[in-house]
Design goal:
The protein is globular, with a radius of gyration of 19 Å. It is α/β, with parallel strands linked by helices. It has helices at residues 11-18, 22-25, 37-46, 63-72, 88-96, 109-127, 130-139, 148-159, 167-173, 178-189, 193-209, 216-222, 228-239, 243-250; strands spanning 2-7, 28-34, 51-55, 79-83, 101-104. It folds into two domains: 2-124, Rossmann fold (3-Layer(aba) Sandwich); 128-251, Orthogonal Bundle (Arc Repressor Mutant, subunit A). α7 crosses α8. The chain has 14 helices and five strands. The longest helix has 19 residues, at 109-127.
Length: 251
């Protein structure tokens, strides 16, 4: 799932955006929100964000200034901007700075879906390694994020996170012998495939539980668990907390 920061000063409008089905349908999850650019800068510095979806005209710091601040810090996080026709000159500035898209208000589901589909094409190559980020996170700095085999495995897991992935299936997809793949994963990460995959699932679960839009059973399904109860038991084994307790603690 691609992690979205939603930046909009109107709480009712944010609520409406959150309820749109295009996010989940296209593999996006609103994991952070901010009421203005200043709040967004602080959260971007602290969190893990794949893309920023922002209004242009906001108090304290507008969307254009937000994008400039992020670029000044050498962060290449993609932006989608939304605003009214009267803000078109601002929109042109945003596009000049490298915004992926500009959507006019009022935001319609169809327009959002088109923008997200275009964003996925751009994000595809760079974000396929979010699984790699999780692998590095759970296995430590000795993992080489540019290792060709691990990159191929990351791509496969990213594309199949909703399924229950097995070593057999991964080996078949990568055209490798199962035993060879298992040994290589162990050598490169210090973990066997099952343990590595399970750790990545839990790491993703922690990210998704920060989002109040998702029910625990939905997160369970998104991560390929056979049931919400099994997901809960596995999550507690690793974190010491139930998903509900962790979610309450984080939100």
């Amino acid at each position: 799932m691609y992690r979205v920061m939603l930046v909009e000063d109107d709480g009712a409008v944010r609520h409406g955006y959150r309820k749109m089905k295009a996010w989940g349908k296209n593999g996006f999850s609103i994991t952070e929100e901010a009421a203005n650019g200043r709040q967004a800068v602080d959260k971007i510095d602290k969190g893990e964000i794949d893309i920023v979806f922002t209004d242009i005209c906001m108090p304290l710091m507008d969307g254009i200034t937000l994008m400039k601040k992020v670029r000044e810090e050498k962060k290449q996080i993609p932006f989608i901007m939304v605003s009214s026709f009267s803000d078109f000159e601002y929109a042109r500035e945003g596009l000049r700075l490298g915004a992926l898209d500009y959507i006019m208000k009022p935001l319609e589901e169809k327009e959002l879906e088109h923008a997200l589909q275009r964003a996925k094409e751009v994000l595809g190559q760079s974000t396929l390694n979010h699984v790699m980020d999780k692998i590095c996170q759970v296995c430590g700095p000795e993992v080489n994020p540019r290792d060709p085999l691990l990159m191929s495995l990351s791509r496969y897991l990213q594309e199949n996170m909703k399924n229950s992935v097995t070593l057999d299936a991964a080996a078949e997809a990568l055209n490798l012998n199962k035993d060879y793949l298992g040994k290589q994963i162990k050598a490169k990460t210090g973990r066997n495939f099952k343990n590595l995959y399970h750790s990545v699932q839990i790491a993703y679960a922690k990210t998704l539980l920060k989002n109040d839009n998702y029910k625990i059973y939905e997160i369970s399904e998104m991560l390929g668990y056979t049931s919400a109860d099994y997901f809960a038991s596995q999550f507690k084994k690793v974190t010491g907390l139930s998903p509900a307790a962790y979610k309450k603690q984080m939100i």
